[in-house]
Write a structure and sequence with these properties.
single chain; 125 residues; 25% helix
């Protein structure tokens, strides 16, 4: 059950960037999940050369907000802590015609901990 919950949380986080904004819809059932700590680090993020610039502070703030928006609305009885490291990114350059349809990409490593057990639920991020 816990591993399934961890996998679901991580999958939802990854799919968030690919889907439409569904935050106005009721959240998917995650059982007893409640967001504990929301830790995001971007100190070692690598920028793809064609990408626009984004500061460490901007990345950390945006990702914390996205995680809070998505997972902070769960009101379960068991706390889970999320840790996300931003590993690399490519922000679509401005001024390219719509025909080229450039996309932005982010590479992250995410981990989830059971707060009460003090144990990481996923072996690899």
């Amino acid at each position: 059950m816990i591993l399934r919950l961890a996998a679901l949380c991580l999958a939802a986080l990854l799919v968030t960037a690919c889907q439409r904004n569904d935050l106005k819809e009721p959240p998917v059932d995650l059982g007893d999940f409640a967001l504990g700590l929301n830790i995001v680090v971007a100190d070692h993020a690598q920028k793809v050369p064609i990408s626009r610039e984004a500061s460490v502070e901007e990345w950390e703030a945006v990702m914390k907000t996205a995680i809070d928006d998505r997972f902070g609305r769960y009101e379960g009885t068991k706390l889970y802590n999320l840790g996300v490291s931003i590993d690399g990114y490519a922000l679509a350059p401005p001024g390219i015609p719509v025909v080229a349809a450039p996309k932005s990409v982010i590479a992250i490593t995410a981990n989830i901990w059971d707060d009460a057990a003090g144990a990481k639920l996923n072996e690899k991020g």
